[in-house]
């Protein structure tokens, strides 16, 4: 932390407030950040001047269009997204459920692409949403196919916190599910990130056999009953295999 510029760190603390707030007043920023008013004022002036923040006629701040430009650049440069999207559309048309594409980011997974369910009730997912690797099918399928040493190191250090009624909170149970996922090539979740929802996910591999992403379908739990699940599993695994093949995957993954 000592090597980091304090002004930059404080500026990031201000910008991070807008991850959960669309608009904030000057006083709200001061209160939420805990940074002195004079420092907040100077940083807001600079952030607004550089295009990172916009201020409306009511004096409230929001993220500037510069973030949209950066966001589009990042999305466009993610090859996995460009390759996967047509196949995600195919899967979406076939099953009518939400389709998500997730990659690993440290101890978390992050949504980099999504197609909403065709059902009237929408799930809470958004591009940029982060979830812990142990929770939810799409996140956990990445964890299941990480090299064993990385996987075990993660399990040892992480605290399994409950997020919804079905979140896995026992490490031995998590290990058993990860082993089963390695055998079957998919994982299934019920009420792990949101109550009354289910998801089925499969891993995406590169030419070296390394897991690089996960693809899932997700929807209301009532749509994932026993008679329909086997067909959905095959659809998701098929989509994951198609994407993997485009990255040169030969069928052998690294564990």
Short overview:
It contains 9 helices and 8 strands. The chain has helices at 6-16, 26-33, 37-49, 65-77, 79-95, 137-144, 148-157, 171-184, 229-246, and strands spanning 53-55, 61-63, 98-105, 108-115, 130-132, 187-190, 197-205, 211-220.
Keywords:
two-stranded antiparallel sheet, alpha+beta, Arc Repressor Mutant, subunit A, 255 residues, 44% helix, 9 helices, Beta-Lactamase, 19% strand
Q: What is the element layout, followed by pairings?
A:
Elements: H1 6-16, H2 26-33, H3 37-49, E1 53-55, E2 61-63, H4 65-77, H5 79-95, E3 98-105, E4 108-115, E5 130-132, H6 137-144, H7 148-157, H8 171-184, E6 187-190, E7 197-205, E8 211-220, H9 229-246
Antiparallel strand pairs: 1-2, 3-4, 3-8, 4-5, 6-7, 7-8
Helix pairs in contact: 1-3, 5-9, 6-8
Structure in words:
The chain folds into two domains: 64 residues, Orthogonal Bundle (Arc Repressor Mutant, subunit A); 169 residues, Beta-Lactamase (2-Layer Sandwich). The strands form two sheets. A six-stranded antiparallel beta sheet has the order 5-4-3-8-7-6, sandwiched between helices. The protein has a two-stranded antiparallel sheet with strand order 1-2. The model has no long low-confidence stretch (mean pLDDT 89). α1 crosses α3 and α6 crosses α8. It has nine helices and eight strands. The chain is of the alpha+beta class and 255 residues long.
Specify the overall morphology. elongated
Structural class: alpha+beta
- Give the tally of structural domains: 2
Strand order of the largest sheet: 5-4-3-8-7-6
CATH class call of the largest domain? Alpha Beta
CATH architecture of the largest domain: 2-Layer Sandwich
Arithmetic mean of pLDDT: 89
């Amino acid at each position: 932390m000592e090597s980091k510029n304090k002004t930059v760190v404080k500026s990031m603390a201000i910008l991070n407030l807008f991850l959960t707030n669309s608009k904030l007043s000057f006083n709200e920023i001061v209160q939420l950040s805990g940074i002195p008013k004079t420092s907040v004022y100077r940083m807001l002036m600079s952030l607004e001047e550089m295009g990172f923040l916009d201020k409306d006629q009511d004096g409230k701040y929001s993220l500037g269009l510069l973030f949209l430009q950066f966001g589009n650049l990042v999305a466009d440069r993610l090859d996995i997204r460009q390759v996967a999207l047509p196949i995600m559309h195919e899967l979406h048309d076939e099953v009518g459920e939400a389709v998500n594409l997730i990659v690993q980011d440290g101890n978390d997974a992050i949504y980099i692409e999504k197609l909403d369910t065709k059902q009237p009730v929408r799930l809470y997912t958004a591009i940029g949403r982060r979830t812990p690797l142990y929770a939810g099918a799409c996140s956990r399928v990445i964890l299941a196919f990480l090299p064993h040493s990385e996987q075990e190191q993660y399990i040892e250090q992480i605290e399994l916190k409950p997020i919804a009624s079905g979140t896995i909170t026992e490490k031995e149970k998590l290990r058993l599910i990860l082993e089963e996922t390695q055998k079957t090539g998919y994982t299934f979740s019920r009420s792990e990130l949101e109550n009354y929802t289910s998801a089925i996910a499969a891993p995406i591999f590169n030419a070296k056999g390394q897991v690089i992403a996960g693809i899932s379908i997700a929807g209301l739990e009532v749509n994932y009953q026993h008679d329909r699940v086997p067909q959905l599993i095959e659809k998701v695994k098929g989509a994951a295999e198609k994407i993997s093949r485009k990255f040169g995957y030969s069928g052998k993954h690294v564990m």
